[in-house]
Write a structure and sequence with these properties.
9 helices; mainly alpha
Length: about 200
């Protein structure tokens, strides 16, 4: 007796297509990836993919949103799970902007999107919105750390949030080109957090 495959709900299929697209985009690029490749990797036809996403761009933007939403959950848990905001930020730094259950790092997706966004105003706007949301999240965390006394009150939360983000991007690029190893990244992170702590 054969068992009929369980059919996914529309929401499950959409999530599966996004996660498959993330994997396929990470193996290539936005421009170099076709919807046919994504559909094939997801085990569906292109018409099924197009029922969920009107275009490859719409799927790519949904992938950006998906990774940030997952990252935000992980980051909020790190802040809540630590006894201080300073400790939570240290845990975030150790994660190097990663999302544990997604094989694609937020910083890497941003770098790829920057390369793809040169002539795409919609993608630029989307990326700018994401970066602003991450910045605002970090500003809020830093202000909470200052209020609780774990972070130095004289540090500028706006500037420190940008430095935190730049560190994540630089760390990712430095690792990728072999400039920085784990020890160097840990030393830089520790020096930065020591400077921020009260």
């Amino acid at each position: 007796m054969t068992v009929a495959p369980v059919r996914m709900t529309a929401a499950e299929r959409r999530r599966d297509l996004i996660e498959t697209a993330l994997r396929v985009f990470s193996e290539g690029s936005y421009r170099g990836t076709t919807t046919a490749e994504i559909a094939r990797a997801a085990g569906v036809s292109e018409p099924i993919l197009y029922r969920h996403f009107a275009s490859k761009r719409e799927l790519y933007l949904a992938a950006l949103d998906h990774v940030w939403a997952k990252a935000r959950v992980v980051w909020e848990a790190a802040l809540v799970g630590s006894s201080t905001v300073a400790g939570g930020l240290e845990d975030l730094g150790k994660g190097h902007f990663s999302v544990t259950d997604c094989k694609f790092q937020l910083a890497e997706l941003w770098v790829q999107a920057l390369g793809e966004a040169a002539e795409d105003a919609e993608l630029q706007d989307h990326l700018r919105t994401h970066m602003r949301e991450v910045h605002d999240f970090l500003v809020d965390a830093i202000r909470r750390g200052q209020a609780e006394g774990s972070l130095h009150p004289d540090r500028d939360p706006e500037a420190e949030a940008w430095v935190f983000m730049a560190g994540g991007l630089f760390g990712m690029v430095g690792r990728r080109v072999g400039l920085l190893g784990d020890d160097e990244v840990a030393r830089i992170r520790k020096a930065r957090l020591d400077w921020m702590r009260a």
